[in-house]
Amino acid sequence: MSAIVPGKDGDRYVPYEERTGKESVVYFTRDLSPEGLLKIFECVSPALKGKIAIKLHTGEAHGPNIIPRPFVRKLIEEKLPDAAIIETNTYYEGDRYTTEQHRETLKVNGWNFCPVDIIDEFGTTRLPVKNGKWFTYMSVGEGILKYDSMLTLTHFKGHTMGGFGGSNKNIGIGCADGRIGKQMIHTVPHSDNMWSIAEEELMERISESTKATIDHFGDQVVYINVLRNISVDCDCAGVDAAPVQTPDIGIVASTDILAADQACVDMIYALPENGGAAMQERIETRHGHRQLAYMKELGMGNNRYGLIDLDHGNVLTCAAEAVKDIKPGWTPDKYNTPTIKF
Fold this sequence. Notes:
The chain has a single domain, classed as Rossmann fold (3-Layer(aba) Sandwich), CATH 3.40.50.
């Protein structure tokens, strides 16, 4: 039996003109507000039916960059009153390692206006990974089986090991349970280093984990990425996250996970005056582009898309046009101030 070998070129950005295949639809707004989130949600909401899970990274205690609670609260109260946020406990020891610790952190961060279901609180289940090369199944929180549909609501940002954290990372790591699934993704069996899997192999394992979950939901899963407070570090870093250097961009939504994440990466690479340099360096040095290439190989979506600009009459645009007026640097908005009450 031949050894399993990861793909290559995770450090290379593939320009749009070099891509092939079908196009998906991606929606875009620059409106980073609760109203902007509601507007873009309406574009993808018809796919959601029955009991709805909202896969959200709720963050470490006092995390400064997570999606603002007012955004999520308005969405839930006005559009998804019966939905629940879903999370899993962490693989590393910290403020979300046990369910008890996790619930205290949820209180600290203001996630107290709707149910939050820690889906690995009472056990795990196995979801099949179809056509995977690393896994035949992924271990996820068994609570996921209670839901019919999933809204993947993601703070798009960098990641210490993944290069970037979009919808793929939010699901692949975020639905894998804290003790078994996350270990399957991150750790070589019997290794003393819990983070012993990296670069292209890690990207492929994350993507296979994601595939297990989205195959489970079928066509009743949608993806919204919020490009705001884009630190090169994940929300797992909490208050220790690197200072934000990348300017805020807007919100992206699609029913195609690859197209959604690819559009975000494309916008970062298209930012004027090299405004996306910090994120580009983080993605390339961690070989994060392999997330996108492998999702395409697994048939999880398309890396070509039509970008619908909701701010200008739903015209068809491109990543470079969408971000052409964004100035380099980052300025905190009103949702970063300590006066906001949750």
